[in-house]
Here is the input.
Amino acid sequence: MSHLARSIRRCLALATVTTTSLCAGTAFAATNELEEIVVTAQKQEQKLSETPLSVTALSSTDLTALAATQFRDFANTVPGLGFTSEGVGSTQINLRGITSGGSVSPTVGIYVDEVPYGSSTAFAGAAQLALDVGLFDLNRVEVLRGPQGTLYGASTMGGLLKYVTTAPDLQKFGGKARAGLSATDDGDINYDVASAVNLPFGSDKAAARLSGFYSHDGGYVDSLGLGEEDVNQSDVYGGRADLLLQPTDALSIRLNAFMQRIDRDGTSQVAYDLATGNPLDGDLEQQTILPQGFEQEFDLYSGTLVYDFGPVELTSVTSYQEFSNDSTLDASPLYVPLLNAVLPHPPFPTWGATGVDYGITTDKFTQELRLAGTGPTFDWLIGGFYTDEDSDQSQVINSFAPDGSPLDINVATVGLPSTYEETAGFGTLTWHATSKLDVAGGLRYSRNEQTYVQEGTGLLVGPSPKATSSESVSTYLANLRYLASDNLMTYFRYATGYRPGGPNFLGSDPVTGEPLGNPAFESDELQSYEGGLKATTDDRRYSADIALYLINWDNMQVGAARNGIGVVANAETARSTGAELTLTALPVPELTLAGTFAYIDAQLTEDAPDLGGKDGDPLPDTPEFAFMVSGDYAFDVHEHASTVGAMLRYAGERVSGFDASAGSPQYHLPSYMTVDLRGSVALGPANLRLYVRNLFNERGQLSAGTALTQLGGPAMVSILQPRTYGVSVDVDF
Here is the structure.
C-alpha cells in the first residue's frame, strides 16, 4: 500500500471512531476500507471504538489539518472541553463544566505519555498554568471525559488531557519537516518551523528520535498605556530526545527528555466595561501601563520499562520534571486607588502604578509500577504510585510614582513554599461474563502529606508558621460493556474523582488563641454516571458516538476570605448533566463529513456564599451548547492529490463567575461562531497547505477576568485570534 493510501486510511478511520474528523491535506484512496484508532485511555492499548468511556483522539493528521501549533488551535473542536486563557502558557481547562471559575487546583489532569504534569496542590498555580505543549511530532492528543481517579489519581475529576508523543521506529530511517507563515488582521506576522528525524541503530534493537520546534505568534492586541502594538506576541520553542531500546522481544526501555520554553510580552486580554459588555477603547486594545511579561520553562525526563513475562506484563514509569513560571500583572486599577485611599500622603507618596510579579517553581518526582494480565475469563491490573513535589510561589508588589519612577516601599513580598507527598495503590478487574458482556471494577487508595508556609513582609502582609495536613482518599470505578456486534457497543460507567485537600493559614483569636476558621480544607469529590453507545454501519461509512452523563460534585474547593486572610474553603454541591453526540459520514469515498455536539447543564445545587452563588446558578466558563461541523473533499489536480475543506465552530453564552461575588464580579460572555477554510495539494514528498482561520473576523470572547473591577477597573476579556491567512509546507523523508 502506498504512503498516500495509508494516510487516507488512517484519516478515514479517525472519521469513524473518534469525535472529530479533520482530514484536510489528504486525498482519495482507492479503497473505502477503514482501520481502527488505538488509544491508551485505560493504560493499555485498546481500539477506541471498544473503549467504554467518552474519548476524543486527535491524530497528527488532525493537528496538521488545523495548522495547530498550540492548545487554542484545537481546543474548541473537542466536545465538552472549556477553557479560559490569557495567552499561550496561561490556560485553565475544564471538562463537562467541572469548574468553579478561578479553580484553586486543576480539575483536569494532564499527562505527557505516561507522566503526570504539574502540581496537584492548591499552592502552585497549576490550575491556571495548564501545559500548552508544542504540537509538532505528536502521535495524537487524547481527551478523556469524566473522572479518571482510579487509574490516573488526583486532580482528574473532570477528565484527562494526554499528549502522546511519537515513539522511535526501530526499523527505518526517516523524518519530517514543517514550515509555516501566516498573517493576522490587525496584528503581526506569525511563523513556525519544526523538524524530526528517526535514527535506527543496533540491528533493529535500538532507535533514537530527535525533534525540535519553534513558533512565533505576532500578536494582535495593542496597549494604549504603553503605546505599543501587538503586546501579546509570543515565542514557543523546544525539543525532544527519545531513545528506544529493545534488546529482546520481551523487554523495551524508552528514555525521553522534553524541554520547552514560552516567552510572551503580554496578554490577549482587552479592556471591557463590566456593565455594558462593550470595549472601553478599541476592540483589540487594553489600557495597561506596565509591561506584563510572561516566561515559562518546563523540563521533563522520563524512563519507561516494559517487560512481557507472557501472561503478565510489568510496566515501570519513572520521571522527574522541573517547572518555572515568571509573570507580571498590571494591577494598577485595583491597587492604586486602594493604596492612595488607605495610606495618607505624607508620610506615604502618591501611587501612580502597581505591578505584581509572580514566580512559581515546581520540582516533581514520580514513580509508577504496575502489573497487568489477560486471560479468557479475567483481565486484571494492579499498581502503585508515588510522587514527591516541592513547590514555591512568590508574589511581590512593585510600586511606581505618577511619573513612572519606582517607589522604595515594600508593599508586600510573599513567599509560599509547599510540599506534597502521595502514595497510592490501585487495581482493576475485568470479568468477561460472556463473549459479548464485560463487567469491570476498580479501586484506588491514596494517602498524601502536605506542608505550606507563608513568608511575608511589607505593609499588607506578615509571616505565618508552617501548616501541615494529611489525608486518605479512595476512588472507585465500575463498568458494564456490551458488544452487541462488531459494529455496535453500549456501556455504562460509574466513576469517582477527587482533588486533594490541604492546610490553611488562618488568624487566631487574640484572647483565646483559638483559630478563626478551619486549619485545613478537605478534598472535594464527585460521582459520575455515564451511559454511551458507539455504532457504525456494516460498510463502515457512517458512525455515531453518543454519551449521556450525570455528575454530582460535593464539597467543592473554592477561594475564600476569613478575617481578611485568603484561604481555601469547601463550598456545598453542584451538578452537571449533559450529552455529547458525534456523527461522521462518508457518503462518497471522496467526501468526509463530521459533526460534534455538546450540551452541558452545570449549576450549583446549594447556595455557595464564598463564591457569591445561589442554588441554580450556572457554573462558570461553560457554554450550555457548543458544536463543530466540518467537511473535506478529496480530488486530483493533474495527478496531484488535493483537498478542500471547511469547519464551522460555535460556542454558546457563558458566565465568568457568580452574580454576588465580591472579588470577581459577574461578566456575561456572548456566544460566537467562526468559520475556517483549508486546502492542500501533494507535490511529491511535500504537502502544501493553505488555510483561513476565523474567516469572518469574529471577535469571540473566550474568557473574562474581573478582579480589577472592584474599584472601578476594567473587565479583562480574552479575544479570539482575528482572521488569519496562512500557508505551510510539510515534507516527509
